[in-house]
User: What shape does this take?
Amino acid sequence: MAQEKDQTTRRDFLELSAAALTGMAFSATSEAASIAPPQGGAQPSASTGIDLSRLTIVEAAERIRAKQLSPLELTQAVLNRIAALNPKLGAFITVASNEAMEAARASEREIQQGRHKGPLHGIPFGVKDTHYSKGILTTAASPVLKDFIPDFDCTNVERLKNAGAILIGKLNLPEFSFGGFTPGCQNPWDLTRNAGGSSGGSGCAMAASLVLGATGGDTSGSIRNPASTNGCVGLKPTFGLVSRYGVIPISWTLDHLGPMAKTVEDTAILLNALAGYDPRDGFSAQAPAQDYRAQLRRNIRGLRVGFAAESEIAQFHPDTKKAFFDAVKVLEGLGARVQEITFPERMRATGASHGVIRIAEAATYHREFLLTKANLYKTTDSNVRTTVEAGSLLTSSQYLRCQRARRLFVQDMARVFEPLDVLLTPTMPAPADVQVDVPETYRNWWNLCGYPAISLPCGFSTNPAGLPIGLQVNAKPFEDATAMAVAFAFEQATDWHNRHPNL
Assistant: This one.
């Protein structure tokens, strides 16, 4: 009987594969994301009766492992949804449809032959268009790199592919990742609003279920901003935990790369593949390997959870403050020992060193472009050229003084964390495109000190209505698993992550 059931499962799997192959709508090579949508837009799977692109990594991985879902069928469903929705969302710059289907066929063969690689095998993902991808256009959303096609994969793409994941394409961003606004990339919850940035395409794609996982880059909050704005999960890992090799930089000592996903558990699965020492990145940390997914379900009872005092976020949007303090109460109800935190005054001054360090290091990277391609930088919706030109005027003395101020900032942050296991703040001071005047947003602080920070949904606004609000959970260096465990406990106790935009 068991043998008969196994044969049926395999037969169903092969039938799904054949259906996906015969139904392929994308046969062109890598092309711009203006692919014409199929008739009727994105459709549910005929074999399962559900929209496969809505699946989380956990759900899809289990179906693929059990041979109830074909990587080909899943990849086709994702490509169909991108074709239907990307014209109005602007999440993708380039869709690598042909390469994705070829990778899906390879995944299918491997799984049929009993060579299942784990929970990312057959899972479609996208990467920010700063990530080198072999044979696929990599532009950083800039005319400066409009024809650049790398001949190798960055470490992140390489590691995700080695885990069996399928690269779908390259996600939108502001030019060279400069800024918290991604031109042409709309918020799936309200198409009149922006998806944020700089990893705006990644956040938009996750909220709209255009892929099951994505990567982002974070120099001043650029993973966590769009995660909050679009209502998904985004992790800025500890500095050095995830390699930056083969990724176009802003600032070598502030840049972090990390995963974005629909849930905390999906984010942990992606981090398992991404984390680890890489000798090609001079800042890569030789930290012990961890299973971040396995640590999610730890009991947070008794954990010391600090939260930003009302005085620290007094000028944040009222809906943001309410959602934040409601989230604190949820964690307290789960047994966490919560305590109010105020920050030392010196941190506000030394934290300003971030801006100088950022543009001075950016100017170093852009020096050659300024000499040879200065006329190609965008002149609208971008301040990259003026910023890096200003950065080139800074002296070495100014830069070094800011690095010394940074050292003081890190010392103060360590003291703040002495009585804590994690620290909570709102991710963004207000919902998407709502302007508030605040002295500090508490995002680039975590780039300056290198501590891990994860953003996840914690509510929705009432004025304006229906926009996501994010909770930021921060932990000590290389305690990424602790931050994620607290985020997971909150997520399991609430239902914000189960909501989807109406597209």
In short: Residues 1-48 have pLDDT under 50 and may be disordered. The domain at 2-30+55-274 is CATH 3.90.1300.10 (Amidase signature (AS) enzymes).
